[in-house]
Amino acid sequence: xxxxxxxxxxxxxxxxxxxxxxxxxxxxxxxxxxxxxxxxxxxxxxxxxxxxxxxxxxxxxxxxxxxxxxxxxxxxxxxxxxxxxxxxxxxxxxxxxxxxxxxxxxxxxxxxxxxxxxxxxxxxxxxxxxxxxxxxxxxxxxxxxxxxxxxxxxxxxxxxxxxxxxxxxxxxxxxxxxxxxxxxxxxxxxxxxxxxxxxxxxxxxxxxxxxxxxxxxxxxxxxxxxxxxxxxxxxxxxxxxxxxxxxxxxxxxxxxxxxxxxxxxxxxxxxxxxxxxxxxxxxxxxxxxxxxxxxxxxxxxxxxxxxxxxxxxxxxxxxxxxxxxxxxxxxxxxxxxxxxxxxxxxxxxxxxxxxxxxxxxxxxxx
Length: 366
Ligand SMILES: Nc1ncnc2c1ncn2[C@@H]1O[C@H](COP(=O)(O)OP(=O)(O)OP(=O)(O)O)[C@@H](O)[C@H]1O
Ligand SMILES: CC(=O)N[C@H]1[C@@H]2OC[C@@H](O2)[C@@H](O)[C@@H]1O[C@H](C)C(=O)O
Hints:
It is a single chain. The chain has 12 helices and 12 strands. The protein has helices at residues 46-55, 63-80, 111-118, 128-132, 142-151, 195-205, 214-217, 223-230, 233-236, 260-278, 299-308, 326-339; strands at 7-14, 20-28, 33-43, 88-99, 104-108, 122-124, 158-163, 166-172, 185-192, 288-292, 312-315, 360-362. β10, α11 and β11 (312-315) form a beta-alpha-beta unit. The ligand CC(=O)N[C@H]1[C@@H]2OC[C@@H](O2)[C@@H](O)[C@@H]1O[C@H](C)C(=O)O binds at residues 15-16, 95, 98, 105, 138-141, 162, 164-166, 168, 189, 242, 327. Residues 344-366 are annotated as: Disordered.
């Protein structure tokens, strides 16, 4: 029997790696996870990626943004139309620019268009309200991570680490009354994760990423360089904090003297060192870090994490979750929360002064 208020929600995420659209269904009332449904992935073609890359860092009104938005909407319409039985859509869109202390945050793709095309009530623009209210606008997955921690029966503090283009981590006390409770969650971005490594692979070798960490495995980490990066005050800065995809892009200029393999090994280590540095911000130590996002497929990155961090480091699959779809599931879950007028972020997640519920709701014409 369905719990009161539970809906089959479809969530879609187009992440900072610009690789494609993840989509997944969750049965939820926005508090507990009642079940996971089907999922799908739709990669962007190289031409589509070029259009998106040309719009990175741009704000509404820039000539490249309209083409990027159309690309995002079409790719989403294509993959989302394969699903049946969804009652609500949570559409994240593609982050093109993120500057919470300045111009705000910009996800392209219009949820109102998707609501019509898919004939589904659509929750979108999840981050703007948070930034307007003084929050970072990211990360937003933590309320879902709290539900996941409950779903897997966790009883002591743990962390969920997402290794996408940027890394983000959620520290969770699963014994808290609810996700909104003070002290239940502490979340923040950990630093660059796959983005600089992907950019290196693309610039030097014309490849999208270091598949299975094969190139990094042939190189040596320049530990002095890693230590130098870690002196950036950003890592010691207490949460809340969030990054734009290209905030650490300048790293690549300093690696020109290194071979391809050494540069790949060093950037892989930088991603892991950022996570190790994050531990000083934990309210209490964790015995386990569950890793989600594409970076968990990189054995070199996982090895660097294990070398630098004493906690057990497992892919989320070890706890029965799907690390390729967790973010898409998060936006399905958050859509239900928005529909039900529940908070989507808190002082511990995005650093808003109070609980905030973001998101716009667009409904198809009757
Ligand atoms: N087999 C693999 N070996 C090495 N790296 C991999 C592998 N599979 C995926 N990745 C890395 O993971 C990235 C994709 O990760 P993911 O899909 O989590 O990113 P995203 O959702 O776009 O990012 P974000 O969470 O920052 O929004 C790829 O670009 C690549 O760097
Ligand atoms: C502004 C933005 O899109 N941020 C993303 C990005 O990708 C990873 C990290 O940086 C995280 O802060 C966030 O996404 C996840 C889904 C989040 O909001 O929880």
